[in-house]
Amino acid sequence: MSQRTTIEWTDATWNPVRGCSKVSPGCANCYAETFAERFRGVPGHPFELGFDLQLVPAKLSDPLRWRKPQMIFVNSMSDLFHEDVPDAYIQEVAQVMVKAHWHTFQVLTKRSERMSALLSSHLTFASRLPHIWWGVSVENKKHGLPRIDHLRHTPAKMRFLSIEPLLEELGMVNLEGIGWVIVGGESGQGARPIQKDWVRSIRDQCRKMDVPFFFKQWGGVRKKENGRTLDGRTWDQMPFACHDNPLGKLDARMDASNPEVITESSQPVEEYGAEGQNRTVDTSLFRAVLCQLSYLGTGKTEPIWKGNISRHEA
Fold it and tell me: Region 216-224: what's the mean pLDDT?
């Protein structure tokens, strides 16, 4: 069984590395550290060493055993590109992601310079595959915005941002080459407040650039009470995921939580007409073709629309 999670934008977590260290203000109230340190010294517990960094080779093959296609957040309890994780081990993790192509992997880091360097060298074999998404965390202008530039200059096929915890107004964000944006406030004890206008600004920029926008939470000490609606609705837009084919989300215009756009069904994606003759394209076929096209040039020959076809309900 995979490691289930309550994180709204994924299905499961996979931690072949455990533990981390702080690099920027976004790390100040790290949920992973708080959780791990509760078990420091408990014999036999996965976090017996607390949040000290440790490689866990026994976990490397887990995704290969999980046959049901799903979104997998890689290293929710660490950072794959931490300076103490050897290049060779990162390559092993990437090789597993390449082999387990029926899943969609979400890799997130604050060590954007190292990720950028490796994606352009030792990890080129994994950088351009559509089922491996590479992302950076963004919390403020000083530390977060430079990470976006590092990410943009990688050869990654799918790039995304996790703007959480959002600690200040970011101003204009260059979203060129970015395929998905997640925004959220900090939660737990000592949570720093988030402002609605900060979130609206990012959402509006995403809409202008046609980038899927996912609002995760307002956060706070009582995050469930604060909810995750923005201006009267939830924002659950997600990029097209090949493991969801044929009924996965295509892009921001295929948002089941937005009544103004096409919902997740097999209704026509759009009508095309000439001289009164209308023709329609079925969304399931349209998405399947797009996913297949995204694999052209990767050398994959196996069918890629296997498995779960009901993921991403709003």
Answer: 94
